[in-house]
Amino acid sequence: MRPSIVLFGDSITGHSFEPGGWGAALTNTFSRKADVIVRGYGGYNTRWALFLLQHIFLLDSTNPPIATTIFFGANDAALLGRNSERQHVPIEEYKDNLLKMVEHLKKCAPAMLIVLVTPPPVDEDGRKDHARSSYGDKAAKLPERTNEATAVYASNCVELAQELGLPSINLWSKMQETEGWGKKYLSDGLHLTPEGNAVVHQEVVRVLSEAGISAEVMPFDFPHHSEIDAKNPEKAFQHLCL
């Protein structure tokens, strides 16, 4: 009965349905208008995510999503020679993997709105603090990610969107417009605080609205209660009968 919006990404997407999460807020925004479906996979990079595409986005689907966010890069940008190097994906491959995702989604539904979302900035001090609180003396001295390296992935994500004529959300830049962004928007130097989630929610709603997908103008799935005649309720549902 309702169209669907799919959120495809790593743990930042996977956590988006937690209290205060941007996915939960998006569900509230589109309540009774569209179903918001989370497909977030903690620790995944774009290389591993490619194996999921054909299982999540079926080529023969009769009811494909009207919009999908692709939100990867935080793990791809993990540095070689540091703790999370197994997640590292070279920048050229990262961009090519995003392209393959877009091409697959377009095969599923040419009219689907695809929104590329960059990784957020990295608060390196926050990552070190998180490591010390988690591992104590065994914590690595250097963070496994840097803001400088993540910037390259963010810029390539935006660049690809421009090349393909797709909308994008540059979280890396957007969040750093605010003073004290590291503590304000990131809980551990990487994942989002409620305030960080609010930024993502606001940006996703903006981009969807600019593309014509606005909860304000979308119809309810069933009649609003004010349209139901208490003495003759079936009249409000006649148009649903086959």
Q: Which bin fits the share of residues in helices?
A: 25-40%
How many domains make up the 3D coordinates? 1
Terminal residue distance = 14 Å
The CATH H-level superfamily is SGNH hydrolase
Q: Identify the quaternary structure here.
A: single chain
- Counting DSSP E segments of at least 2 residues, the number of strands comes to 5
Question: What's the architecture, going by CATH?
Answer: 3-Layer(aba) Sandwich
Strand order of the largest sheet: 2-1-3-4-5
Low-confidence segments: none
Mean pLDDT: 93
Which CATH class applies here? Alpha Beta
Radius of gyration: 20 Å
CATH topology: Rossmann fold
SS-based class: alpha/beta
Structure annotation, total helices: 10
Largest sheet: 5 strands, parallel
